[in-house]
Amino acid sequence: MALGVDMSHWGGPLTGEEARCLQQQGFSLVIANTHGGQTRQQLETAKRNGLRIQAYVYLYWGMDQTARVLNALSTISGLGCEMLWLDAEDDPGGRPPSVIVAQLKAAQGACGTMPCGIYTRGSWWRPYAGNASDFAMLPLWDADYDERASYDGYLPYGGWRRPLIKQFGGTRIVCGQSVDVNYFEEDGMSSQEYNELRQLIAEVADDVKALTPALFDIGSRLGIVENGLATRPPQPGAPAPPVPAPSVNGIDRRAEAIAFSLQTLITKMPAIVHTQAVQGADALIVADKAAALLRQRGCGAKVKGGQVYAAATDAQLP
């Protein structure tokens, strides 16, 4: 069991005495709002006094989310934040769920290499985001003010089986600072492990991108790849089958590259759901073909929102 606090500029500067008091009271994590002018001071003081640090950016639906996230990243640059949380709780102002989801995707895309997650609550997400599961691969920071420091009573929504952090209590004064209180489990994946996992995925993806054209070419010459599907190699003494001509728009080759990439990730990390966005011409056809290839190879796979979701089994898919 571990405890954390989140704070904003409304609480003013975080003093060293307050930070040390928080640690003595059993808190190990500080999450600060990225707007309001107190962010860097609060996080620097928390880190200097041995607390883990993360940040959140409050999303207003009438604003450019990409710009807002980039401003947040600039604010916390160089501090060593473990995570940037995308705060989805503001009144949508009549905007439909499709618009909210699109804006959240823009915010997620702006995170770049910074690990990001979603802060929200079920009673908001279900009506205003349409209970979308598009972000189920991201960590969830769930707001549920039941005053219980545990995950007990969590009702799944948005494809999240369990939150990474639970905000179990609203604004109060702790150690002289205005904060909300949060619970999380240290025995789960830590933010450092999450960052390392993202780095591993990026490295694997780069390797796959570099190797895929060569592997496809070798497979074609040996006759073991035909239109992106594995076939039997030629029998000894049999004439070599003709090398299949690539499709005009490269659909089969693109699908094979995506399937190969995701299958490699599943082999290395079978407990995780992996995704890959498909863009460009014929994106939907390419995605469907890649998912079909993965299913033929015994993996779980589906296409949703322009992305291919892949896992070791269908049961793992969001």
What does it look like?
This protein has 318 residues and is of the alpha/beta class. The chain has 8 helices and 13 strands. The strands form 3 sheets. An 8-stranded mixed beta barrel has the order 1-2-3-4-5-6-7-8, surrounded by 5 helices. A 3-stranded antiparallel beta sheet has the order 11-13-12. Strands 9-10 form a two-stranded antiparallel ribbon. The two termini are 27 Å apart. Mean pLDDT is 84; it is low at 215-235 and 240-249.
Features:
318 residues; alpha/beta; 8-stranded mixed beta barrel; 13 strands; 36% helix
Number of strand elements: 13
Mean pLDDT figure: 84
Please count the helical segments: 8
Strand content: 15-25%
Gyration radius (Cα, Å) is 23 Å
Shape: elongated
C-alpha end-to-end distance: 27 Å
Q: Percent range for helical residues?
A: 25-40%
Strand order of the largest sheet: 1-2-3-4-5-6-7-8
For the sheet with most strands, the description reads: 8 strands, mixed, barrel
The string of secondary-structure elements, in order, is EHEHEHEHEHEEEHEEHEHEE
Task: Indicate the low-confidence ranges by residue numbers.
Answer: 215-235, 240-249
Q: Helix/strand-derived class?
A: alpha/beta
List the helices and strands and how they pair.
Elements: E1 2-7, H1 16-24, E2 27-33, H2 39-48, E3 52-58, H3 65-76, E4 84-87, H4 97-110, E5 116-120, H5 122-128, E6 140-143, E7 165-174, E8 177-184, H6 191-222, E9 225-226, E10 229-230, H7 251-268, E11 274-277, H8 283-296, E12 300-304, E13 307-311
Parallel strand pairs: 1-2, 2-3, 3-4, 4-5, 5-6, 6-7
Antiparallel strand pairs: 1-8, 7-8, 9-10, 11-13, 12-13
Helix pairs in contact: 3-4, 6-7, 7-8
